[in-house]
UniProtKB/TrEMBL annotation:
Name the UniProt record assigns to this protein: 8-amino-7-ketopelargonate synthase
Cofactors named for this entry: pyridoxal 5'-phosphate
Alphabetized UniProt keyword annotations: Acyltransferase, Biotin biosynthesis, Pyridoxal phosphate, Transferase
Domain Aminotransferase class I/classII large: 28-369
Function: Catalyzes the decarboxylative condensation of pimeloyl-[acyl-carrier protein] and L-alanine to produce 8-amino-7-oxononanoate (AON), [acyl-carrier protein], and carbon dioxide.
CDD domains xref list: KBL_like
GO molecular function: 8-amino-7-oxononanoate synthase activity; pyridoxal phosphate binding
Similarity annotation: Belongs to the class-II pyridoxal-phosphate-dependent aminotransferase family. BioF subfamily.
PANTHER family xref list: 8-AMINO-7-OXONONANOATE SYNTHASE, CLASS II AMINOTRANSFERASE/8-AMINO-7-OXONONANOATE SYNTHASE
One GO BP: biotin biosynthetic process
EC code(s) of this entry: 2.3.1.47
Annotated pathway: Cofactor biosynthesis; biotin biosynthesis
Length: 380
């Protein structure tokens, strides 16, 4: 790995969720966090956690052993209401939700259709399930349709299409409306991972499927509380009987300790903020537009991103590492994303923005990134 510039280091940082963080006694503009709405440091979340502390710092067991507190029930009904779904189930985190749902729903006789750039937790859930895995080309629905036809010819028992709503390393969005058409045409189910879209996209931050008006046709929705919500944990929503089935079969739900009361309380408070604070979404969207335009006009190769995840494509891993090191030397924290997180030859610097970034800091950051772009001969 070292020979290929693929080793990684764990680094210590202070104020990791803030727009400006500290590392090794130096301040950095944080362009790497998923704390999109800036809620991770919100005093109301700290207040909610403080109030719940009297109920203990941890949970006693899996929910199926001792049971759960009233607040968990309240949270799950609030989530179901917010998503206009029949029911919701809270998981330990997004990774566990994806692994649990996919390994519970799919068997060897089934087929699963997954975008080539879906998150690693989706890939792992599929591997665990043993179902036939069709990886279709990124956002390529002609290819998806060919795969659906192939599965029918093989006499597959059941079919499930799974996709990220916003792709975590590219920042572009899935063509969900056309996917709904295909799922209906081929009698498949659809599972959408809204990890990077809830809180950020749509009225009350309900996510991409709601924004496109097709939420009802998605069989299962998943979202995480670790990004725009600024807390930790995840949820799945859908029909009551699907959720009941998951309670009985999702091993990453059954065989693990429930989230602690302090975390459940913070998530509930964050859910209120996410629904109310459309002003944060507007501010974030304006900043993303400005940042994307600045980099694109300077000549960087961007993806089709329309979200706060804004990568510049550099291709080669060592060049990308050098770019990231130069950024760090000039006070900007933006990590080099290299294989295996992205395909070979597609290394990149992935910037992500927050609603509470200061406009003058972003303006200065663009200037620095462009300068380094010239120095590294990425732009001409
Ligand atoms: C698309 C996607 N799904 C799932 C996850 C996992 O969520 P969590 O961090 O809550 O485990 C992530 C990121 O971490 C993600 O980007």
């Amino acid at each position: 790995m070292a020979e290929q510039d693929l080793t990684r280091e764990l680094k210590m940082v202070t104020d990791s969720a803030q727009p400006v963080c500290q590392r090794g006694g130096k301040s950095f503009l944080n362009l790497s966090s998923n704390n999109y709405l800036g809620l991770a440091g919100h005093p109301q979340l700290a207040d909610a956690m403080g109030q719940a502390m009297s109920r203990g710092a941890g949970s006693p067991s899996s929910r199926l052993i001792v049971g759960h507190e009233e607040e968990t029930d309240q949270l799950e009904s609030e989530l179901a209401n917010w998503q206009s779904s029949e029911a919701a189930l809270v998981f330990g985190n997004g990774y566990m939700a994806n692994v649990g749902v996919l390994s519970a729903l799919l068997r060897r006789e089934d087929a699963v259709f997954s975008d080539r750039l879906n998150h690693a937790s989706i890939v792992d859930g599929i591997r665990l399930s043993g179902a036939t895995h069709f990886r279709y080309r990124h956002r390529d629905l002609d290819h998806l349709e060919i795969c659906l036809k192939k599965a029918d010819e093989k006499g597959t028992r059941r079919k499930l299409i799974v996709t990220d709503a916003v792709f975590s390393m590219d920042g572009d969005v899935a063509p969900l409306q056309d996917m709904v058409y295909l799922k209906e045409r081929y009698g498949a189910a659809l599972f959408v991972d809204e990890a990077h879209s809830v809180g950020v996209i749509g009225v009350q931050g309900k996510g991409l499927a709601h924004e496109l008006g097709i939420a009802d046709q998605v069989d299962l929705h998943m979202g995480t509380f670790s990004k725009a919500f600024g807390v930790y944990g995840a949820y799945v929503t859908g029909k009551r009987e699907w959720i009941r089935y998951l309670i009985h079969t999702a091993r990453s739900f059954i065989y693990t300790t429930a989230l602690p009361p302090v975390v459940i309380s913070a998530i509930r408070r964050s859910l209120q903020l996410v629904q109310q604070r459309s002003v944060l979404r507007q501010s974030l969207s304006g900043k993303c537009h400005y940042f994307r335009e600045g980099l694109s006009q300077a000549g960087f190769r961007l993806t089709d991103s329309t979200t706060p995840i804004i990568p510049i494509m550099l291709g080669d891993s060592s060049r990308t590492l050098e770019f990231s090191q130069r950024l760090a030397e000039r006070g900007i924290l933006a990590v080099a994303i290299r294989p295996p997180t992205v395909p070979n030859g597609e290394a990149r610097i992935r910037f992500s923005l927050m609603a509470n970034h200061r406009e003058e800091d972003l303006r200065e950051a663009i200037r620095t990134i462009v300068q380094i772009g010239y120095e590294c001969k990425v732009i001409g």
